[in-house]
């Protein structure tokens, strides 16, 4: 499972960089994306769902730090 650490990045970059990383993966593979920008926790999963990807989970691992588990369509 690949991991993408986007701490310090803000929206729209969080979505764009996540999308680019997903393009490197095969269908069905999973990605863990790490964000510390609160708006990304709502915006990125919603946008990825709209593109057909599956959000397997969102976990706040510490205050203002989240891991989002994504399965590529």
In short:
With 73 residues, the protein is α+β, with helices and mostly antiparallel strands. The chain has a single domain, classed as 2-Layer Sandwich (Translation Initiation Factor IF3). It is built from 2 helices and 4 strands, in the order E-H-E-H-E-E.
Strand and helix layout:
Blueprint: E1 2-5, H1 13-23, E2 30-35, H2 38-50, E3 54-62, E4 65-71
Parallel strand pairs: 1-2
Antiparallel strand pairs: 2-4, 3-4
Helix pairs in contact: 1-2
Alpha carbon gyration radius: 11 Å
Overall pLDDT level: 97
CATH topology: the name is Translation Initiation Factor IF3
Q: How many domains in all?
A: 1
Biggest β-sheet: strands ordered side by side in the sheet: 1-2-4-3
Give a count of the beta strands, DSSP E runs of length 2 or more: 4
CATH superfamily, called what? Answer: TusA-like domain
Task: Explain what you see.
The protein has 73 residues and is an alpha+beta fold. The chain has a single domain (2-71), classed as TusA-like domain (Translation Initiation Factor IF3, 2-Layer Sandwich). It has 2 helices and 4 strands. It has helices at residues 13-23, 38-50, and strands spanning 2-5, 30-35, 54-62, 65-71. It has a 4-stranded mixed beta sheet with strand order 1-2-4-3, covered by helices on one side. Helix 1 (13-23) packs across helix 2. The longest helix is centred in the middle third of the chain and has 13 residues, at 38-50.
């Amino acid at each position: 499972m690949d991991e993408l650490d986007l701490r310090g990045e803000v929206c729209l970059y969080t979505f764009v960089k996540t999308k680019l990383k997903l393009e490197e993966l095969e269908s069905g593979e999973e990605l863990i994306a790490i964000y510390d920008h609160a708006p990304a926790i709502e915006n990125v999963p919603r946008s990825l769902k709209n593109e057909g990807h599956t959000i397997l989970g969102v976990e706040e691992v510490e205050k203002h730090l989240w891991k989002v588990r994504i399965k590529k369509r």
